[in-house]
Amino acid sequence: MAAMSTPGMRPQPQLPTLHLDFPMSLGTFSEYAAAQRTVDYLSDHHFPVEQCMIVGTDLKQIERITGRLNWGRVLVGGLASGAWLGAFVGLIFTLFSNENGLNVIISTIFLGAIFGAFWAAIGYAATRGRRDFTSVSQVVATRYEVLVEHKSVQQARELLGQMNGDAAPPHEAAPSGPQRTYSEAQQSSQYGQQAPAGSNPQTYHGAQSPQYGQPGTSEPQQPEPPRYGQRSPESDGN
User: Fold this and answer.
1) Model-level pTM?
2) Is the dihedral of CA 37, 41, 44, 46 positive or negative?
3) Which of 36, 73, 22 is nearest to 183 (CA)?
4) Does 43 score more than 80 pLDDT?
């Protein structure tokens, strides 16, 4: 049965998916500008950058304090914002009114300033002095990892190897501890899928587990018990 479509509805455009086939890491950087320069260098050398992705990890929030807040600054800020709003409303009224436009604008500016100061005072009084400062906040990443699909990673590494002759390459961020990168997380989530031809399976699935019947390297081997008729080493020492 053919799919029914609602008349008048347009098909939604297909957005690019944030997914790479077996992503491999080209480097981890402490600043976004360094990761951006890496991808831009690949783009300048005709590399298929649609196979690349920049992933920011270890998010943190930064709040920059811009000044002290008191009743004077609150009222002045409310008056200014209300006056701008009143001027905008007054300009709109002059387009549809036959009265004197200047009088309308002045009256709306005055009313807007009073209204803005009133609401600013209410908002500041609601805080009860628990936030007597102004600030701006932003969420940034601590590390930025450049990923590329496995089929083009060798070409990307060769191009980045030539980057020393053109400009100084961005410094790679030194990890502060045993942290897991985004590419390692993606590779572990794809466990069980077939790795591409010619690649090392350990790159995608980690170290190979011991085969059946062989002891693992992490477990201590138990001494073999003495056979019938033989004396154990402990009895020889006694």
Assistant:
1) 0.50
2) negative
3) 22
4) yes
